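Data availability (excerpt). The following record was deposited with the supplementary files.
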Amino acid sequence: MKTFTKLHSVSNNMFDIKQEKIKGGFRMKLKMLLMGLVSLFLVLALAACSGSSNEPTTSDSGGDTKTEDKGSEGTTAEQKPVEIRFTWWGDTKRNEVYNEIVDRFEAEYPHIKVKREFGGWGDYWDRLATQIAGGNAPDVVSMHQFYVSDYARRNALKSLNDYISEGTINLSDFPESAVNSGKIGDDVFMVAKGITMPGYAYNTALFDELGVEYPDLNWTWDEFQAKLIEVSEKLPDGKYAISDLSGGQLQPNLRYFLRQKGKDLFTEDGKLAFEKEDLVEWWTMWDELRKKGVIPDAATGVEYENAPLEQNMFVTGLTAITQIPANQIYLYQQQFSEGEIRMVRFPSRAGGENGEYIEGAYLSVTEKSKHPKEAALFINFFVTNEKSLEVFKVEQGSPASSKMSEFVKPLLDPAQARAVEFIQITVPYGRPAPYAPLGVNEVEQAYKDNATAIAFGQISIEEAAENFMKTAESVLNK
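Predicted structure:
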C-alpha cells in the first residue's frame, strides 16, 4: 500500500511536471503568435503609409518590376534621357517666346532635352533643305502649307496619324478645317500652331505726319498704286512707299493676284495654273513703280532681303507700308513708340474673286527622327498645353485649338487683339487652295532669280517670264 502510494505520488508529480511543460509550451507558442501578428500589423501599417499617390508606384509589364514617378503628363523618373532637336524661323522676339516654351516643356518632361535651332525665313528653308538632303534634319521642324507637300512627297516627313489616333497628339478640339489643313491625302503631316491671314501694314503716326489718309480695308490694285505714289511723293529722298514685292516668295503676293483672276499658282495635279501673260502683267506693275522711285532700287532691295524684323526697311523707317501676316502686328508694334500698326486686306481686282486662303504655321516630325514619340509629345505640349499657350498667345496666329483660342483671349495686348480682329474679318473671304507640288522650291527659286534680273535691268520682263515658264514647266513635268 505504501509502495502504491509512493508510485501514485510520483506519477502525479510527473503528470504535474508534464502539464507544466505543456502549459509553458502553449504560452511560448501563444507569445510567438502574438509577436508575429504585431509584426504583420506593423508591416501593413507601413505599406499603407507609403501608398500615397504622390509617391512612386509600381507597374508590371510582364518582366522586371519598375518603379515609376509619374508627373502631370505621365513622364517617368526612370525613363532614359532623350535629346530631340527643334527648329523654327523668326526674329529675336520670337526666339525669346519659343525658348520659353521649350524651357517649360523640359520642366514638364525632365527626361527630354530639346536642342534648339533657328534663323530668318530665307535662311531657315535653305538650311532645312540641306539638312533633309544630308539625313541630319531636326526631329521637330516648323512647317508651312506652301512647302509641306514638297517635303511630304519626298518622304521627308512622318505621318502623324498613329500619334493622333492614340492620343499622344490630342486634336479633339481642333476644327476639322484646321486638322485638314495639315493633311496630304489621308495623312496628317503637320499640326497647326496658329492660323493667320496676310495683309498690308502701316503705322498711323507716319501717315498722320505725312497728311495722308489711311489705306482702305478693301482697296483695289489701282487704289494701291495710287496710294503708294501719294506716299512716295511726300517722303524724303532715300525713303520709299513699300519694298519690292515683285519677287522672293510666290505667295502670298503673286498668288493673291492670280486667284483674283480666277486662277492660282498650281492646279490640283501639280501643274502651273497661270500663263506667261499673267506674270508679265504682275512684273510690269512693279517695274513701273520701281522706275517712279516708289519702291527701292535692286541693290537696296537685295541689301535688306534677309534682314531680321528689327532691322528691316519698314522698322528702320525706309518704307511706309509692308506686307506681313497678321500675327506679326504686335512684333512690329513693339518697335515703334508712336502710332498704331494697323492692317488692311490685299488689294483686290475690281469685279474679281477673293484671293484669300487660310494660312498658318505648323509643326512636323521628320521621317528619320530617332525619337518620334518624344517629338510627338513636344508637338502636343506646344499646341494644347496652357503652359505653352500662355507664352505663345497669337505668336503665329490664333491657336488652332478652340479651347486654347479661348484661353489666350484675356492674355492679349491691344496689338495682339487687333491681329485677332483682322484674322476674324478676313478668314470668311478665304477659299481652298491647292497644295504646292513636288519641286516647288526649284520653281520659287526660278521666280526669284528672274524677278531679281528684271530689277537689275539684266533682262526684259518678256524674257524673264519666258525663262520662268520654261524652267517651271520642266521641273513640274519631271
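Summary of structural features: The first strand starts at residue 57 and ends at 60.
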